[in-house]
Amino acid sequence: MSSTVFEESSVFFQLSKCSHQSVVFCSDEDTGLKAIIAIHDTTLGPAFGGTRMWAYRSETEALKDVLRLSRTMTYKAAISGLNLGGGQAVIIGDNRAGKSEALMRRYGRFIKNLNGSFITAEDLGTDTKDMEYIRVETSYVAGLPESLGGSGDPTPVAAKGVLLGIKACVKEVFGTDSLAGRSVAVQGIGHVGENLVRLLRDENVQVFVSDINEDRLRQVAKKYGATPVSNNNILDLEFDVFAPCALGGIINTDTIQKMKCAIIAGSANNQLADEDLHGQMLLEKGILYAPDYLINAGGMINCYSELQSAYSRKRTMQLAENIYAATRSVLKKSREENISTSRAAAIIAEKRIADIKKIKGSY
Ligand code: NAD
Predict the structure, then answer these.
(1) CATH of 11-70+85-148, one of 3.40.50.300, 3.40.50.10860, 3.20.20.70, 3.30.310.50
(2) Pocket test for ligand 1, best of 82, 242, 245 (most atoms within 8 A of CB)
(3) In sequence order, which ranges of 80-190 are alpha helices (DSSP H)?
(4) pLDDT score of 362
(5) What is the mean pLDDT of the chain?
(6) What pTM did the predictor assign?
(7) Lowest pLDDT segment from 195-199, 230-234, 323-327
(8) Nearest CA to 292 among 284, 281, 300?
(9) Centroid of ligand 1 to alpha carbon of 157 (angstroms)
(10) Confidence tier at 2 by pLDDT (50, 70, 90)
(11) Under a CB-based contact definition with an 8 Å cutoff, are residues 304 and 293 in contact?
């Protein structure tokens, strides 16, 4: 037994918390690439997860993010009935000024070396063009442009799933899944957020938007007739639904105290700073929370379809439509067992993984 002490910020300490299978650090002087690929669990299939590009303040922050996100991907695939494991990658850098063809292709070569145990796609800060560069070096990438035989941008499907999740929650709280006249605040109007705003507007929702990118905020608000609100006080305002579509960790002990919404349902991964603690706090406060990995699975579903033989938009949309029923089941379990919605979703996901693990062990 080793007597080495691992501090909280150490890689091994972080790894031991969620039983990850492996973590790969990618560094390249010439292109400036600094990336981390985390593989959480491959019971259900090869690890699948997006590549996030973000100017993290520290290596520890990037490591924590990639470990949490890759675990979330395991749960997302499991609860969505997909035969994929969970993984994630982060590239440390500015996603507006720090990208280049060489950097993305060099990163693609690291993925290639993993021989199919990790497959990636878009996430916050990356887009189809980046996937196109990665594809030059490896076939273990999805979310490719349609011109390359891919499924194109996954974010419209991701947004559609979020809309269905919002409807399932509205049905639970207000007794009808019609969104007409409801108020929804979308925080982060990037790829998924903008698509969600468009879908909400089509349902005659009163839409409020916020973003740290002021230009984007003005443009999107004008394009869809949404009301811009300051990112600083979005949590103080009263809406039927708060839809976090930016970064994770937005729901924490401080923010829950301020929140006045009836429902939280958005696309951002890892919205709860602490799944158990904050899931329970929301239950006690009477705010209905749609587990993020449950309702934002549309992007993963889209890429999953792309990875199966011929991509069919119709089949993808049918799979994404299941998000409504899956959300209703989680809400029902939470209500009947008086447990938080995040716990209810985790129980369902963990059961599928455990069941399949038993089958795999039998041959
Ligand atoms: P994106 O980079 O296109 O957009 C993110 C937006 O959020 C940007 O406009 C950015 O300016 C804004 N933002 C960042 N920090 C903010 C803050 N503190 N407050 C307000 N706005 C802020 O990213 P995306 O692809 O739309 O992804 C958004 C979220 O949804 C991420 O958490 C991502 O993991 C998750 N998600 C994405 C997909 C996908 O297919 N892209 C699928 C499922 C879930």
Answers:
(1) 3.40.50.10860
(2) 245
(3) 101-112, 128-137, 155-174
(4) 58
(5) 94
(6) 0.93
(7) 230-234
(8) 300
(9) 14
(10) low
(11) no
